[in-house]
Amino acid sequence: MIRIGTRDSQLAVWQATQVKNLLENFGVPAQLEPIKSEGDLDLTTPLYAMGVQGVFTRALDAALLSNKIDVAVHSMKDVPVQLPEGIVEAAVLERASYKDILVLNENWKPPFPGRDLNRIKEAVSGRTPDLISQTPDLISQIPDLAIATSSVRRKAQWLHRFPGCTIENIRGNVNTRLRRLAESNWLGAIFAAAGLERIGLRPANSIDLNWMLPAPAQGAIMVTARGSDIRTLRACNRINHVQTAFCVKAERDFLSELMGGCATPISALAILEKDHLHFRGSVVSPDGTEKAEVDEIYSLNDIKTPGKQAAAVILNKGAKAIIAKMNNEK
């Protein structure tokens, strides 16, 4: 019997249940062991102020190392690139949507008569990129326009595109954040599409943020285990999705090379396309004023570490200065 450690939120239990079902499909019995994380207990402090790295994984790491569970299941974007000693990646499940979405507040109304909400939706989605340049005040100069997110990455990218907005902190599981949004006067709140879609809670009035690059490994589920537990590692290897594992490794290599963590505005997306990998990444200053980008295509026959290569490119395109400035301001 494999004991599967999981946070006890609806989404976390859903993810752990997928792992349980996949293992049992291979004849491996498993059971869930819910565990409270530090990130679930403190819903007030902004993530960037909690020293975020590992805030959602530490309790599960401790349970794993003390042999209370055999594997831990995580949203992979929450997992630090450096795993604790004795813990290894056991499997990565096939990736769901990597996108960020804006869930609109149904109670919000434009403050000016004639202000077209549909045009605001188009500008936010990025489906009509010329709209923003034609009407630069459409979003940024609406008085007191607020967007909610606890992610410094999402905040930085939003402010880079819409510099006049206010960003409100929002914490809690997806159900809690949806409720807080409905009770607010915010235009909307930013969520990971995969999280809402997995548990059937994505509202009809949500918008894909096609221009926003995701966190490294967003949309992927990671299973960790003790490195010494060969039996469990062999079982988990059977549920590993090789293509997803390759892409998210490139993204996390990019993050690691830039010395970034969950509290750093670093984004990355790697997509396999036949015999090559399309890699996009960015580093944005927390206030949105500075941005460095990389957009490269790597042949799988010629390169083994695309994430590291992309990091070298972006460092020479301005990321080094942005990161140095952030480090000096800490």
From TrEMBL:
GO terms for cellular component: cytoplasm. One of its GO terms (molecular function) is hydroxymethylbilane synthase activity. The keyword Transferase applies. Residues 246-314 form the Porphobilinogen deaminase C-terminal domain. The keyword Secreted does not apply. Keywords: Porphyrin biosynthesis, Transferase. GO terms for biological process: heme biosynthetic process. It is an enzyme of class 2 (transferase). Its cofactor is dipyrromethane. Pathway: Porphyrin-containing compound metabolism; protoporphyrin-IX biosynthesis; coproporphyrinogen-III from 5-aminolevulinate: step 2/4. Its EC number is 2.5.1.61. It catalyses: 4 porphobilinogen + H2O = hydroxymethylbilane + 4 NH4(+). Residues 2-231 form the Porphobilinogen deaminase N-terminal domain. Belongs to the HMBS family. Tetrapolymerization of the monopyrrole PBG into the hydroxymethylbilane pre-uroporphyrinogen in several discrete steps. Monomer. This is Porphobilinogen deaminase. It comes from Niabella ginsenosidivorans.
